[in-house]
Prior knowledge:
This protein is of the alpha/beta class. The protein has 3 domains: 2-186, Class I glutamine amidotransferase (GATase) domain (Rossmann fold); 195-382, Rossmann fold, CATH 3.40.50.620; 395-496, GMP Synthetase, Chain A, domain 3 (2-Layer Sandwich), CATH 3.30.300. It is built from 14 helices and 18 strands. It has helices at residues 12-21, 65-69, 79-87, 175-186, 195-210, 223-236, 254-265, 276-283, 289-311, 323-326, 365-374, 379-382, 402-421, 474-487, and strands at residues 2-6, 26-30, 45-48, 74-77, 91-107, 121-134, 140-145, 148-155, 160-163, 214-219, 240-246, 270-274, 314-318, 355-357, 430-444, 447-460, 468-469, 491-496. Strand 13, helix 10 and strand 14 (355-357) form a beta-alpha-beta unit. The longest helix is centred in the middle third of the chain and has 23 residues, at 289-311. The radius of gyration is 27 Å and the shape is globular. It binds xanthosine-5'-monophosphate. The site of xanthosine-5'-monophosphate (XMP) has 11 residues, from loops.
Amino acid sequence: MIIVLDYGSQYTQLIARRIRELQVYSVILPYNAPIKPQDYPQLRGIILSGGPASVYGDQGLAMNADCLELEVPILGICYGAQLLASTFAGQVEQAHEREFGRAVCTIVDDTDLFQDITQKQLTVWMSHGDKITKLPEGFTAIGTSENSPYAAIRHAERRLFGVQFHPEVHHTTAGTKILTNFVHRICGCAPNWTSASFIENTITDIQRQVGSEKVLCAVSGGVDSTVMAVLLNRAVGKQATAIFVDNGLLRQGEAEEVRHWLGEELGVNLEFVDARERFWQALAGVVNPEEKRKIIGHTFIDVFAASAERLGGATFLAQGTLYPDLIESVSHVGPSATIKSHHNVGGLPEQLPFKLIEPLKELFKDEVRAVGKGLGISSRWLQRHPFPGPGLAVRVLGEVTPQRLELLQQADAIFIDELHKADLYHKVWQALAVLLPVKSVGVMGDSRTYENVVALRAVTSTDGMTADWAELPGEFLASVSTRIINEVAGVNRVVYDISSKPPSTIEWE
Ligand code: XMP
């Protein structure tokens, strides 16, 4: 195991992720967390992250004293490297030439950290305004850059390493090799951490944490909450109950599918709550998107809390929060944390009387999918497009009624079905249908119609933050349009959304 100490870098989580990609378990701790050997018997090395502070300023964050006593290898990255230098009485000063972005690091010693790297000149990613100007005693330079003779340093006996650049970002050539050398060779970690071992460890952790108490969680049918519910089920069986609220705003057949997949196939102890009428009533007459979202959020909390009370006696609430849900730019565990307010499944408020368990909070989406696969969840379920918490309510523009929801469900199901058939579903990031609050004139048979318009939207994206409209083949769109107009009573026109995000958003509301 490798501990990553967080000094506030925007890349802290990325470092931990890269280590896991090298199949070594890694966790992030705040820079000043106590690290006692008895608490971490598997610990083989420590990485000090970068950070925005200066080691010499008032806001400099101190070296973790425990980590020096442990005698495991340490790799300091950027701020971490400067911290090592200043701790051992070297000198760090503000650089005349600040280095941001691409730079070149010349390897001058390739015996350990730079072992087996064929190029001697590495393109590396720098992001710092300070530099090491005097090497501490016992240290040697193993890499130089144009602006610094100490771009990479080492204390051979104590196995301390520092790099001014960021090996964890893709822009750094041989970054993975550098991390491999540190983790596998210098620290001696065997590459045996996989999603299977994550599952095993997480299950043990949950068992330890929960003991004989009861746990509740909310499931939406989405990837994160599904993976979490299955993990809980494996860990504590019937002590865990997953509450699934059918809010009447789901896609066609979705509530039954969740019941089948989670309850029957995966054996999750599912409490199915049919709250459709309640949500529909709460939404009656509401057209403002923000108001819809608020009503749905509050109604969800009320329904969830009532179910929790009915079930009674739970001490813990598990949430399928992921790393990107929590983080804006700096790590959530560090001192300088900025925690983005996030709306997980229905946005459960923190004042609910439960202790929280968030077993996925260090993971990225693709890692969660890998864990899901390891738990035996079908890939069709794991690879589904994202779906917003407020569901189809934000895709039925204007008033949400059961009739309009059903109409949209039918159109959406046809679109998704056709995407699967044409092998296009996985080529887009998200696809959806929207029911517009206008009617248009058409002609069907020999008569004039005055019916609804459905908009189709498909986007390419990597994270949903920005997106482009997907250039689906005209022929494909034509066949979807024909099917929708023929099969969905009440629709006589289909349009395709060709806006990118920004300035538009993916959802229409
Ligand atoms: P926008 O519309 O903001 O959507 O471009 C970006 C991504 O987020 C999803 N989305 C939500 N997900 N609760 C969620 O869990 C919400 O309230 C919510 N609103 C939007 C949207 O589907 C897209 O994938």
